Amino acid sequence: MRAAAAAGAAGALLAGCVSVPDARQMREIRAEAAGRRVENLARPETTESGVYLSGPLLLWEAVALARGYNRSLEQEREGREIARGRIQASWSEALPSLDLTGGYVRLDEERTTTLPDGSSYTTRHADQTSAGLRLTQPLFNGRIGAALRAARLYDEWTEATIRAATEAVQRDTIRAYYRAVLSGHLLEVNQTALETAERQLADAQARRRQGMASNYDELRAQVEVSNFRAQVLQARNERDLAYTALYRLMGASPESEADLVDDIPLVMEAISFGDAVRTALERRADLTVAEYALRLQDESVAAAKSRYLPEVSGYVAQTWANPDPHDSSRDEWGDEWQAGVQVSLPVFDGLDRRGTLIQERARRRQLEIGLRDAEEGAVSEIRQAVLSLKTAEEFAHSQSRNLETAREALRLVEAGLKEGQNTPVEVMDARQALTKASANYYQSIFDHAMARVALQQAMGLLAPDALPDGPVLKESDLSDGSAGSD
Known about the structure:
Elements: H1 2-18, H2 23-41, E1 54-57, H3 59-69, H4 71-77, H5 79-90, E2 97-106, E3 111-114, E4 120-124, E5 127-140, H6 143-209, H7 215-250, E6 257-260, H8 273-283, H9 285-306, E7 311-322, E8 334-344, H10 352-418, H11 424-458, H12 475-479
Parallel strand pairs: 1-6
Antiparallel strand pairs: 2-5, 3-4, 5-7, 7-8
């Protein structure tokens, strides 16, 4: 009966361990989650779907929201708890351990001894029960120092990783914010062009009725209106997509209705390539991460070497047992204690230690090469970023002049149309040119702002207060070698 009960309990436990939802049950689980999410999305308030935003939104506010509510950053920050747990776990190499043991053994038969006088006594009882405590204190092994140093290095590595992720989110948020602003400008440009084209269509229709314009002029004006309507629809869709991407980065509800206040800045600044490279090699989060990874691997090599050293530990044990541990013939509870020192030195382990050490040293060389490659990549990225910023400045200047030229050209053609010196088709062409010049201008200042952000990130200066409307490289950045913080 006991065996049957034990088998039944084991079967029930096994069934619970292997029970997983099938495809139908998983669809039901996801359907329930979908229902909750749709209900949250329909409510104009802060829910688990995100922070609901409405009204004016400054760039620094968008960056602050992203740094606080971005889902990927929330995941990265959990690494701090992992690091804290790793630090605590590393102390196990140096702190004592206390184990509680217990056991029961049922032997197949008892053993007895018969004395010369014919009497007998039991020398081994069939039922043997024991319980004990064992305290073990490591006295020496090569892993203690390596484990403690590795835990602290992992903590710093985690902080550097979080900083790198935070800078990436900040860059993406700035890009998304300015992309939304750019899409708004492009929508306005196309809406203005559509309104002007509609007025010209009405004028062409009136002139045709008076016999002053041909059917072609009216048809050409209708085609232009249709083209601008399509561009307005496309621009409106791109604006909606840009806002959705921005809300997603900020951890905000997609139903938010924020009004972006900050415009795209155009700040000109001369940056020395040497200063930029020096700052990047000191400040970049990815280089810090690579440096910590190399130092972590140094500790892994040290731990592998420690396996060639002896391990020494002291212990104290207390045992309670029936039969009495001092006299196995007594069917009574008794106790005993032990204390001692244990020393172990592996002599031959089938080349496991040697193979492990070879692997750890090779991994260290890989990380060392990776660090050098990352430094070279940083220098190359800085050079490209500086050149891209210079090109973006020149492009922004040229598009600004081109925009003024296109405006003046449209003014002259419209004046010539009133005087009969130009045709409606020439006005349409001039308007198309102005629309394209306006779009190119806004795109050029967007590209310039993004080139500044890219250079800031490449130098490791994308701190919370580092926004594109300020200088990329400050005097304090050149004098202070400390890295930015999360």
